[in-house]
Write a structure and sequence with these properties.
Length: 226
């Protein structure tokens, strides 16, 4: 293999190392997102609430596995493996691009699903207080719209996990859980959107390099027979 082929080989290998890292980061990020809504999954069957974090987690796993296979294919200079990897990478690029577009176009609907989730839990607080407590502790919020929703009977969860009691004055600085939840997911959705575009661009470059490497390996093997 000439210098150009060796350069493509190792660039592809480095790209796949980056994919492995991106896959791990997406797995971690998706897991964190799922843990944030884990407490409400038994009472809310909202597709918008669960589809994004699950898609991110699954995508991270797929990227990790394919990137690992791509590293092996590049190092061993196997044209069949590398070409298969390039086809899978292109399909993954299309799927990830579709996910980014979906998040971009359905952003408002996704956030509306989160609002419905919080409202459902708030309405059920009289029969099951634990879910609302979990949201207030994790998001550092109080009430649905504001702490004033509780009047004078403010729960301890509005003042933190170690609070023995909580008054309306102590909880006054905390936002309502609906606003806090929207703020958190708005920030996360933007991160997913731009990070997804960046990773998709890298995947497209990796697809091109993999095709070049597979083609060069095939040409080198043809020359061996002449």
């Amino acid at each position: 293999m000439d210098c150009g082929g060796v350069l493509v080989k190792y660039i592809l290998f480095i790209f796949n190392i980056l994919f492995v890292i991106c896959g791990i980061l997406l797995i971690i990020f998706g897991s964190i997102m799922i843990s944030n809504i884990g407490d409400i999954k038994d009472v809310v069957n909202s597709y918008e609430t669960h589809s994004v974090p699950i898609a991110v987690l699954v995508l991270g796993c797929i990227i990790f596995v394919i990137a690992f296979l791509g590293c092996c294919g590049a190092i061993r200079e196997n044209s069949c493996c590398t070409m298969t990897y390039s086809v899978i990478m292109f399909a993954l690029f299309l799927c990830q691009l579709a996910l980014v577009i979906f998040i971009w176009m359905q952003r408002d609907q996704i956030l509306q699903g989160f609002d419905k989730a919080i409202k459902t839990i708030w309405d059920q607080r009289e029969t099951d207080r634990s879910l609302m407590d979990g949201i207030e502790l994790s998001l550092k919020c109080c009430g649905y719209n504001s702490p004033a929703d509780y009047l004078l009977n403010v729960p301890k969860s509005c003042c933190g996990p170690t609070a023995a009691s909580c008054s309306i004055t102590e909880a006054a600085l905390r936002p309502g859980c609906a606003k806090a939840f929207d703020r958190m997911w708005s920030k996360n959705i933007d991160i997913i959107r731009y990070a997804g575009l960046g990773v998709a661009g890298i995947e497209l470059v990796a697809f091109i390099f993999a095709c070049c490497l597979a083609n060069q390996v095939r040409n080198n093997r043809r020359r061996e027979y002449y």
